[in-house]
Known about the structure:
This protein is an alpha+beta fold.
Amino acid sequence: MRSGGGWIATIATIITFLTTIHGWISPWQQTNSHLSPQRRRRNSNSNANNNNNNNNPMHATTSNNGDDLPTMTMTTTRTRTTDRKISTEIDDDDNHTLARNFHFPNRRDVLALTAGAAIGSTFGTQTSIATIAVRDDTLNEKLLVQQQQQYVLKFPTLFDPLYGKSYRKTIQRPIANNNTTIWVLEQNLELGPLQTPIRCTVIQLHDGTLWVHAPLAPTEEFFELVESCGRSSSSSSSSGEDSDTTTRTVVAHVVVPTYALEHKVFVKDALQRWPTAQLWTSPEQFSFPFPASDELIYGKSVSGILWDDIYDDDSNSSDSNSGETRNNNMRIPPWKDEIDYASLKAGTFNIGGKLTTLCETAFYHKDSKSLIVTDAVARIPKSVPALNDPEQLLLISKQSTNDPRPDDTPQARRDGWEKTALLVNYFFPEHEELDPKHPGVVTWTEGWHENFNALSGRLIVPPVVRTLIYGQNPARVQRWVDRIVDDRRGWDFTQIIPAHFEAPIAATPKEFAAAFQFLQDDTIDAFPIKDLARGLKPIADIALKR
């Protein structure tokens, strides 16, 4: 597989594994060991805002966990009540699509429900026919959701599920800007109990077809939500066409925007769903540990590589980027008049004895005035992302791995998110310490909340990218930034849509350039030295041979 980030991304992920395994993974596994994988992911209500509980027909009671989450409890017999809850979340403020988070039934659930109904009928307990019908519909709906959110990871990775079958929930949000609507689809990227948002952007082109940036896990739910972005165009098709086929073929372009594995590992699945779509990739895609063809990696040939006319080339290019290869792939995309792009050579590293360049391509959608990036910049939200599982947040929120699970309160969830953000961005943050008196126990010391506040709520180049990738050749990165913000290029964006954390981010070219001031002086807007000292800095010193 063309491995994103190569050995740097691998080392980074392994370090994160080590961070969690010395204290957080073990209690997480113990807490969830009795549950199936799909139920572990759905063993509590979502964090999405719920502003319409009073209008929700399923809203019968309110949970007392500090968040006004709609729930409905169903009675099976006069003397026995099931404590399984169904939550339906609707976030009208963010225009979230209707998203459901169910506890999936296993065989025992079905048998118990059937037996309860039979006993009620035999002994005259107060279970109505209508109640049984509701339960039956509920189980069917649970099974349907489970099927909609299932997928198979066909290439080994270091994020969940490593390999094989798993489940991910997807939410869709329309983003309106400059009288134009584009869409983002979001899932969770998981490493043990650590969950962070990962995002795909969808744009409807002037011809009515769809442009899909960095496809996510290939669940039926994800595919249908992508295809729903284009139904306004497919509805005008001739009445003789099959509507399902018309909907599916509306995806005309799939884009691989970066080297990073998590943003391209599902491209082959997307192209199997949309076989007529053209494939466009950021430059310098590579295979590790052995060469592999585009057909093997993506299931088809690449339609074009996104070299731009002033791509920053030099003698450090890998063998795969000879002038002949570049010239043969200089096809101009048919969407370039609507979506311009600029590709960055972020760094060149010796991977498996071969010089390999890591690239990212930024895109500017003219109609919506949106800058679309993958990992270049981000804004870490102060509040908990909608898809994060409260159970995992509560686990990470503990001051010590020896502590019991805290009560489910909004503050505990926020603490869990803040610590998750520090772990994901720094690997070994300053205030996560091994307890010298208790081997294997990890504690959080005072000061972590202040370090989270210093990291979050502002436009930044994430610590991993800034320290490991952009640190090799700051001048080359600066030239890329200058091209993006150059007035003559005309990228007058008013919002940025990154592939991680918060989106959209209201920002101008001037604010984008300000996030890269460290390229001129690395003391500007520096991250806390002690947050970097045990994780990112030692790896960067090795990678950059400092």
